[in-house]
Amino acid sequence: MDEGASLHPCDDTYCGPFPESEPEVKAVAHFLRKHRTQIKAYLSFHAYAQMLLYPYSYKFSAIPNFSCMLVQKMQKQAAVNAVNALQSVYGIRYRYGPASRILYVSSGSSVDWAYKNGIHYSFAFELRDTGHFGFLLPENLIKPTCTETTLAVKNITMHLFKKCHLSVAAKF
Which of 12, 35, 97, 149 could disulfide-link 102, Cβ–Cβ 3.0 to 4.6 Å? Predict the structure, then answer.
């Protein structure tokens, strides 16, 4: 077991009895494995913290080789573009970077899993706000959050078109 998870079933960070022990997780993992050569990006949406995170979350890690350095450089550039686009709408600032450094060390992240399975553009959005409302975002902030996040996702998509030489007709 990695850091950031608990073996105790009553803990919020319980890792489960074994990998993919829950049917929902197993179904997503199966889908991603089956289609990983066609999937160019993996996005996960959460609340709250105003962050755009990418691997790794399960450990503080040195980049293992040069090709991974290039991938992480492209990931960072996609995150910068997305966060700048997001901020351009309502001025809301998001932090970005590796999840273990920006947020905390946690095990079992689907973003890390997708990345390690070849989906190199793997991101987790921690949406509004920074803690004032917590998980109970007021109704009047839901649509603005969707609007700005949609623009950020569009920017990640456009980054993929450019860097991965995809056409608009590409299948996702």
Answer: 97
How far, in Å, CA of 120 to CA of 163, rounded? 12
- What is the residue-wise DSSP string for 9-29? TTSTTB--SSTT-SHHHHHHH
Q: Which string of b and e fits 102-125 if b means at least 16 CB within 10 Å? A: bbebbbbbbbbbbbeeebbbbbbb
Residue-by-residue DSSP string for 34-66: HHTTT--EEEEEEESSSEEEES-SSS-----SH
Crossing angle, helix 139-163 and helix 66-90, to 10 degrees? 140
Instruction: Examine the residue annotation and report whether 126 is marked as an active-site residue of this protein.
Output: yes
pLDDT band at 122 (very low <50, low <70, confident <90, very high): very high
Q: Is the pLDDT of residue 44 over 70?
A: yes
Say which of 3, 20, 24, 126 is annotated catalytic.
126
